[in-house]
């Protein structure tokens, strides 16, 4: 009989075996099942980020894993990540959750930029870059954004002296309002009350899309759909409701748009109404997928680390560090994916054409060599005073990806999060009632509702 220590060393050796042709440590697991049983034993999809983090600790910054449903190369080295974005081609391809792609196939549904590939993607994305990524886009919309954030502060005041009820819903609704305001422009200031009921309706629909998608992701989706099982029917209804509701909103927005709004710019570049709707729906879904969740984690961190409320009030420039620390610890996209367009060798690793490369932002953000005391919320680490450290950290900070397929809403997202947190901190003293853990449901969410008690600063 082999001793347990010998067996452990054997497992470690096997885990670190490299594909001789690529130099990448590879773990194939069982035939057909791959490592899916190990993933399930580690907490399944909600804890996938922690499972992959442990695998990086075992096998290094680059490894390949056959997870049963698909095989992927995971990368946590920031330098290699940046190289990936430099070689991902003219039309970068990324992984699309199977429930979403299956819905599009069944319903012949045209969707926005996230779902496009090849020349179709480039033809729609390229003309929009100059509008969404221009330096002055935020300045032009500042009056609208100010009103939207003031609306949130006003709604939160009703919780004075108590806990915010359903913080997730409040921030999701706020994010949708922020995006619609950005699309409409200044006219939203006068017309926004017409959208309030629709905002609540869309918030419920989009939350349902993500909840049903996350449940389907751990099932054989095609079989669930073929059998017409409840998880698919709930998901299908949520997506169809979102498209129907969004079409009505877009029709109203087209009539009410202002020249400084982004919808005006979209319509300058795209004439097809269905395609305009598809792009707007993607932007609205992304508002909940990214900024609403990021805002929730930022408020959680500020309430948990109360000293930073005082520090931010004393030094408004610290908001940059609060923003970056939030997305370092809780990146809106835990994994960023790219399919390799051709064979390429990066450093000591060879990636093959069509390899699915998955960038592990959760792990790269916890690299102790780059971020000392990585599990601690330290907004000061991003201050410009520590120039050398700041450069290293900036090179490791990729929450919106890079290259031609980086997040088109990055500037809006940063403005949204920083303005929201700055103003919420000015208005309220935040107290965390209990800590939460992060789990994955497509995006990193709290494992239970975040409980925050607030009191107005004028009364504190």
TrEMBL record:
Statement: the UniProt record of this protein carries the keyword Heme: yes
GO MF terms, alphabetically ordered: heme binding; iron ion binding; monooxygenase activity; oxidoreductase activity, acting on paired donors, with incorporation or reduction of molecular oxygen
Alphabetical list of Gene3D superfamilies matching this protein: Cytochrome P450
Annotated heme binding sites: 407
Keywords: Heme, Iron, Metal-binding, Monooxygenase, Oxidoreductase
Family: Belongs to the cytochrome P450 family.
Lineage: Eukaryota, Metazoa, Ecdysozoa, Arthropoda, Hexapoda
Protein name: Cytochrome P450
Cofactor: heme
One Pfam family from the record: p450
Source organism, top-level taxon: Eukaryota
């Amino acid at each position: 009989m082999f001793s347990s220590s010998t067996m452990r060393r054997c497992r470690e050796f096997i885990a670190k075996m490299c594909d001789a042709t690529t130099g990448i440590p590879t773990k194939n697991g069982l035939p057909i099942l791959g490592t899916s049983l190990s993933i399930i034993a580690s907490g399944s999809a909600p804890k996938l980020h922690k499972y992959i983090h442990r695998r990086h600790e075992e096998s290094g910054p680059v490894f390949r894993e056959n997870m049963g449903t698909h095989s992927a190369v995971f990368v946590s080295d920031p330098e290699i990540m940046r190289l990936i974005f430099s070689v991902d081609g003219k039309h970068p391809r990324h992984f699309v959750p199977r429930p979403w792609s299956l819905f599009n196939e069944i319903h012949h549904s045209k969707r926005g930029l996230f779902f496009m590939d090849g020349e179709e993607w480039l033809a729609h994305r390229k003309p929009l870059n100059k509008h969404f990524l221009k330096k002055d886009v935020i300045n032009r919309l500042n009056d609208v954004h100010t009103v939207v954030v003031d609306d949130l502060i006003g709604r939160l005041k009703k919780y004075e002296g108590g806990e915010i009820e359903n913080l997730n819903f409040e921030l999701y609704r706020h994010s949708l309002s922020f995006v619609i305001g950005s699309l409409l422009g200044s006219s939203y200031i006068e017309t926004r009350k017409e959208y309030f009921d629709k905002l609540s309706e869309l918030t419920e629909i989009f939350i349902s899309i993500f909840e049903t998608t996350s449940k389907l992701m751990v099932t054989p989706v095609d079989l669930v759909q073929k059998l017409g099982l409840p998880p698919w029917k709930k998901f299908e209804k949520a997506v169809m409701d979102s498209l129907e509701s969004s079409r009505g909103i877009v029709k109203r927005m087209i009539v009410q748009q202002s020249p400084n709004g982004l919808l005006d710019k979209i319509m300058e570049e795209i004439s097809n109404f269905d395609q305009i709707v598809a792009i707007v729906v993607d932007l609205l879904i992304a508002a909940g997928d990214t900024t609403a969740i990021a805002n929730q984690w930022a408020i959680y961190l500020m309430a948990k680390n109360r000293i930073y409320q005082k520090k931010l009030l004393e030094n408004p420039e610290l908001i940059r560090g609060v923003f970056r620390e939030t997305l370092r610890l809780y990146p809106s996209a835990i994994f960023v994916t790219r399919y390799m367009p051709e064979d390429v060798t990066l450093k000591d690793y060879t990636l093959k054409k069509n390899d699915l490369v998955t960038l592990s932002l959760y792990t790269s953000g916890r690299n102790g060599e780059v971020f000392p005391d990585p599990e601690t919320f330290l907004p000061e680490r991003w201050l410009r005073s520590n120039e050398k450290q700041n450069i290293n950290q900036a090179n490791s900070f990729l929450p919106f990806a890079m290259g031609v397929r980086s997040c088109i809403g990055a500037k809006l997202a940063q403005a949204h999060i920083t303005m929201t947190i700055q103003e919420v901190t000015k208005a309220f003293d935040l107290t965390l009632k209990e800590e939460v853990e992060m789990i994955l449901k497509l995006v990193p969410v709290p494992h239970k509702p975040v409980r925050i008690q607030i009191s107005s600063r004028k009364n504190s």
